Amino acid sequence: MAKINCLNPIAACGMDLFNDTYEVVDDFAAADAVLVRSAAMHDLELSDNLLAIARAGAGVNNIPLDKCAEKGIVVFNTPGANANGVKELVIAGLLLASRDLMGGYNWVKENASDENIAKTVEKQKKHYAGCEIMGKKLGVIGLGAIGAKVANIGFRLGMEVYGYDPYVSVDAAWRLSSHVKHIKNVEDIYKECDYITVHVPALDSTKGMINKDAFAMMKDGVKILNFARDILVNDDDMIEALASGKVAKYVTDFPNAKIAGVDNVITLPHLGASTEESEDNCAVMAVKEIVDFIENGNIKNS
Ligand code: MLT
């Protein structure tokens, strides 16, 4: 009987796919296969019987890939399974960066008991005025499952979309997102765009890529969206760029002690894939990968 451990609970519709030849165990060390969402696994001792880890999500930066490679542990993820959920939140981020929804909402909440609130609204409008996204230039860095979807919706919202991805050929980028101007140098995204959204994995090569050198190339008042990973942005440089007005808004799904609470930063608690649909899709895909591996030796999405 194969032993399965869930480091983080995953959606029930995934767990239901395990038949009675599988046993779900609490003991991580006893497991043949582990399911994980975003729990950090770097400090965990990987037992010799562990065969596979399936990450119910796209990013695998919480998994010690080097140790897994040494021990021959197969690592799966679920690319694309939550792309729609993340894409929709990115679009919300685009609007949050453009219209002062938070300011307006907070004002109404604070004044909710004022019986003259309806009369005072007129005076507030100018405080919370924003800008429209139609006609603006959107730069999408990374044209994978999420980036390509964001690019397409940006286009449908009337934006001029620039896409950059060193690993996607011009032809593939065109197929993925036919409305994207495929840019060969990321610098051109920095120079041209009013909004820049990053959709690349957390790697040594992408760490801190949004930094003072990148800001120096950007337009004044650029708006930055980060729904990919915290480490892509150099926080000190971002704080400086916000203070100088180079960056007008930074919307990030990754709060940390440095950036949360800084003016013109909107932080969410990593909600990108927190939808019922995305959680279900990831759970089903992760469990199918484990089952297919244990029963047939197949290795997909590893
Ligand atoms: C992912 O890597 O799939 C997303 O960041 C969402 C998540 O981690 O839950």
Please characterize this protein's 3D structure:
With about 300 residues, the chain is an alpha/beta fold. Strands 8-7-6-9-10-11-12 form a 7-stranded parallel beta sheet, with helices on both faces. The chain contains 11 helices and 12 strands. The relative contact order is 0.16. It is globular. The protein has helices at about 10-15, 65-70, 85-95, 100-110, 115-125, 145-155, 170-175, 185-190, 210-215, 235-245, 275-295; strands at about 1-5, 20-25, 35, 50-55, 75, 135-140, 160-165, 180, 195-200, 220-225, 245-250, 265. It has 2 domains: about 1-80 and about 275-295, 3-Layer(aba) Sandwich (Rossmann fold); about 85-100 and about 135-265, NAD(P)-binding Rossmann-like Domain (Rossmann fold, 3-Layer(aba) Sandwich), CATH 3.40.50.720. It binds D-malate.
The helix/strand class is alpha/beta
Largest sheet: 7 strands, parallel
Bound molecules: D-malate
C-alpha Rg, in Å? 22 Å
Number of helices: 11
Q: Could you tell me how far the N terminus lies from the C terminus, measured between alpha carbons in angstroms? A: 23 Å
| Count of individual beta strands | 12
Question: Which architecture of the largest domain would the CATH scheme give at its second level?
Answer: 3-Layer(aba) Sandwich
Look at the structure and give the CATH class of the largest domain. Answer: Alpha Beta
Domains, number: 2
Reported by name, the CATH topology of the largest domain is: Rossmann fold
Strand content: 15-25%
Task: Describe the strand arrangement of the main beta sheet, using strand numbers.
Answer: 8-7-6-9-10-11-12
Query: Could you list the spans in which at least 5 consecutive residues all have pLDDT below 50?
Result: none
